[in-house]
Amino acid sequence: MQVTDQKTAGYQSHFEKFEKSLNGESKTPLHALRRAAMLKFHELGFPTTRQEDWRFTNVAPIADTGFSPALNGFTARMTRKEIDQHMCRDLKCDALVFINGSFAKEFSSVGMLPGGVRIGSLAEALKSDPDIVDAHLSKYARFDRNAFTALSTAFIRDGAFMVVPDGVVLDRPVNLLFLSTTGEIPFVAHPRNLIITGKESQLSIVENYAGIGHNVYFTNAVTEILVAEGAHVEHERMQHESDNAFHISSMHIEQRQGSSYTSNAISYGGSLVRNDIASVLNGEGAECTLNGLSLATGAQHIDNHTMIDHAKPRCASHELYKSILEGKSRGVFNGKIIVRQDAQKTDAKQTNKTLLLSDDATIDTKPELEIFADDVKCTHGATVGRLDEEQVFYLRTRGLALDDARDLLTNAFASDVINRIRIEPLRELLNAMLHVRLCKGRLMRSPL
Prior knowledge:
Helices cover 24% and strands 37% of the residues. The mean pLDDT is 92. The protein has ten helices and 21 strands.
């Protein structure tokens, strides 16, 4: 079902201006890809709640807002102090900073790297490594079924670009900070990240989306990751956009034989949020772990869609997603596991748990299994509940105030996900942010 052409017409006008600014680049294969994606965006239109994948998430507020593309990063408006406020303190890492979707070299820092490793801007890689980019870009994140991925592809311009060659083990994480600033008009940024690992390599990524100010903006992020044979990737993703921001993200992972990919995705911010993550286990013995935690207060809406595609035999997947919902917020979890006909000896486990802290908070949960093989172990389950009043009472008898007792139990619920993050400074930061969000929820809570 397609929304009226008026909803997409403004993006066509912006695309034509973008096209004129490219000069000679408009004749490259990349721009042919952009044009094809723009046509597909018009064909698909913005999704509606009549479509099964978007049944619980109404993107009309995004479709109805006239967003202008943030083609300039506005880096001159930022200071080092403002940037540092959104960096993880005590985290020893290489850092790439992007402001409104554009690489901010002056705020980024990359130390000495092993031979062949590339960590930098996609815009620069389009000039320095076009063959590598052309071989992988848009090969894992297909735009033929998702309007937001099509829109991102149409406006591909900048984002993170990382290549880790065969056998290279990076001993420190790479921190990707995507910061959105206050604008005079609503704007949209389309950060596009391409991460390629070689055989038997190891990489740790910290991907962080944050906002400054309270104006309306839209982040439409797409990340593509190739995890080669025997490679190990750990991916921590934090989203704490501004309260009035819209955030749509799509992560696509291609896993090869014997590879391992672990994702810990934390969502605290944003007004309307949709996180899609899809991994294809396209090599025997691959392993995928997806963990997620969402905390929504007020009228926030946070939707998590996951898809793990077991395409080859003897692969394993583990999934744990939790939501904490306060006020009149709404959460969505849709987790799909596909086991192909030839994917015998598959071992897949999926769990979704939701904690409702108010009478008006709601969750729509939909775990799915599609199994076409017969020699498999697959389980899934979902639970929804409130804080245990007996536990609250017990803590209060030990001298804790009501709010402190509730917070202690809520933290225990969340820590099951947060403690799976191996980077200690990041765990401490997320626990501190959790406390702030819970305090905010208390302030917004209606009196009993």
